[in-house]
Amino acid sequence: MPHVEPGMVVGLFGGSFNPPHGGHRLVADIALRRLALDQLWWMVTPGNPLKSHRALAPLSERLALCEDFAEDPRIRVTAFERTLGSTYTAQVLAAIRARNPKVRFIWIMGADNLKNFHRWQNWEKIARTFPIAVVDRPGATLSFLSSKMARTFDYARIDEDDAPLLGHMAAPAWTFLHGPRSMLSSTVLRRQKGIIG
Q1: pLDDT greater than 90 at residue 128
Q2: Is 81 a residue whose pLDDT tops 60?
Q3: Helices (H), 35-140
Q4: Tell me, which fold does domain 9-192 have in CATH?
Q5: Portion of the chain with pLDDT greater than 70, in percent
Q6: φ and ψ at 69, to 5 degrees?
Q7: What are the residue ranges of helices labelled H in 51-175?
Q8: Strand locations in the chain, DSSP E?
């Protein structure tokens, strides 16, 4: 895991990054700026239990691409999930918290993941343990109104103007961040290269 100091506010942005693209960088830029983060970890996953692994590039290749792509020095590209032996976000986040009890973490996700968040293992525990920032993505703006997560934790949503406070709030607490959106997606990029999946 990247080195952190007690009291830091660290964003956790997980995904397959298969491949990384401008949309990932845009989410990172928005999160760093709007959430007043000290660091943002790009957690490159070995695999996603909810997605096919057929078109998944080797982890080492995705890590190298992310390192080249992440320009801001506050971004730390990591694949420590591989050594934990789990691809389930809830288990990975529990390990992060256990090893860094005095760091303030925010789970960051694109709005396109919000609609299926309730399918993630222990999704309610994640929301009750970590503040969450949902960053707008094309075609997913209304997800924060209709998703099961948004309905379940409606009482815990804070206005995006208060987003810099999120890292200092106890969970459950979440916000939806509007901003510039990129139409790029890893799926589209793979299809353009003739890779199915």
Answers
A1: yes
A2: yes
A3: 59-69, 81-84, 89-99, 111-114, 123-129
A4: Rossmann fold (3.40.50)
A5: 84
A6: -85, -30
A7: 59-69, 81-84, 89-99, 111-114, 123-129, 143-146, 148-152
A8: 9-15, 39-44, 75-78, 104-110, 132-135, 174-177
What does the domain layout of the chain look like in residue ranges?
A: 9-192
Distances in whole angstroms, Cα of residue 35 to Cα of each of 24, 39, 51, 52, 94: 16, 10, 29, 32, 22
The region of weakest confidence among 39-48, 129-138, 142-151, 169-178 is: 142-151
- Closest by CA position to 16, among listed 40, 60, 46: 46
Q: Is the pLDDT of residue 51 over 80?
A: no
pLDDT of 185-194, one tens digit each? 444 433 445 5
pLDDT at site 153: 96
Q: In the structure encoding, which two tokens stand for residue 25, read together? A: 């960088």
Other residues' Cβ atoms within 10 Å of the Cβ of residue 60: 10
